[in-house]
Automatic annotation (TrEMBL):
This is CoA transferase. One of its GO terms (molecular function) is transferase activity. Pfam families: CoA_transf_3. Keywords: Transferase. Gene3D superfamilies: Crotonobetainyl-coa:carnitine coa-transferase, domain 1, formyl-coa transferase, domain 3.
Amino acid sequence: MHALDGIRVLDLGTYLAGPFCATVLGEFGAEVIKVERPGTGDNLRRFGTGTECGDTLVWLSESRNKRSVTIDLGDPRGTELARELIAGADVVIENFRPGVLERLNLGYDVIQELNPRAILLRVSAYGQSGPNRDLPGFARIAHAFSGLALLAGEPDGPPVTPGSTSLADYVTGLYGVIGVLLALRAREATGRGQCIDLALYETIFRALDELVPAYQQSGFVRERMGADTVNVLPHSHYRTRDGHWIAIACTNDDMFARLAKAMERPELADPGELGTTRARLAARDRVNELVSGWVGTLTRDEVLARCREAQVPAGPLHSVADIFADPQYRHRENIVLADSRIGPLAVPGVLPSLSDTPGEIRWLGPALGADTDDVLTGLLHRTEAEIARLRADGVV
């Protein structure tokens, strides 16, 4: 049994944000029908590292558990096929630019007429309304517009990419999952679906802690701080004697006292010294120099062992090679070896972990149109002759 057994999702999206929402829903049992352009398919098939099967590693990993159907939505016959699929769907997901779905005669008003119980998730760069509504955008633009990118980097250097360039796609996809689950819960009471409107930038903006209230209250504009954190200290990255990097996160005075003891400098935590957050923030450079100096005299394993013994939050800065070797990742099955069209492929595991209705990876990204015939015959009751004519005309 899966948590979303019986839920059918129609994935009309491209690239990553909307489709990632469909991927997560599919991991927990939803039937996901991925609609792609005949001949070329979703651009995600060509985004990332190519493989011998013709699709990228990104596609194989992030289009897991989906059925691929090719339909030309620009052809009236293709639009009719999509309308029939919508009539039988619980969730429809799209991330076209605003107005495209309406031009295809598949807007939310049409969806409501076809299927009042259907839930529509709409993902776009700036949302379905506002002065920027019609502008294009990807995750990098969302990082910039949300305020995140300007915070990433060293104080005297340029803004840099805050980790993955696809971060906003993944975060927005997760907010999409939340929206769909909330809408499904509401449908239990009302019997009706609803429309969910998400902008890439606003999901990142939502995650920037006190940026908004701090500016409203005092006019404080946070700037780049490198690895440091604005309100607590020490809370940064430090280099060990053997050339590795570790993170230390002391978020209150008790944690700093434990760190000072581990450093064999317990006097640093005295109230008249650096024992309060206020005092440490006022002496940021000195605190970081003290911690850096101590970490730099020890190997990574020695620092982590001392922090572990003192109950100080600390951890290594992992490369992907470190992650593959880490026993915690192995124990939690955070990396799964799954069958694919290029053989066994390591991919991130399923999250979250549910005790009674866990998710699973049933297959990785399918070949283009692999399920077209099955869906058109099984769900839309087209004959083989009808499908052959549609295929000959490039509709499917």
